[in-house]
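We both want to read discrete structure tokens more fluently, so let's practise on a single case. Would you write everything just below, so we can both look at the same thing?
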Amino acid sequence: MFITEAFAQAPGGAGGGAGFIVQLAPFLLIFVIMWFLIIRPQRQRMKQHQAMVSALKRNDTVVTAGGLIGKVTKVVDDNEIEIKFGDNEPVRVVRSTITEVRAKPEPAAAAND
């Protein structure tokens, strides 16, 4: 009597298999985009950093995460190295804090002034 047609109608049928896939598609698309733009490159950077840190050897010039530049004096073990900053005593540093290994500097050519 007072019920409108919109409220009186029953909800749609139970054939929502294709509807579920259509609703799930944007989430899958977002995940695939995140994989290729964020997760995959981050894994590659981690592998490169791990290879760089494991290849550290004596007399390499390195930059720490704090921005200090020093020379490796001793490889203590798999987790630590000793670095000498300037004329000071060597400091033990955790390998994972090394952010960059710099090439050995070439001697400067004699300046002809």
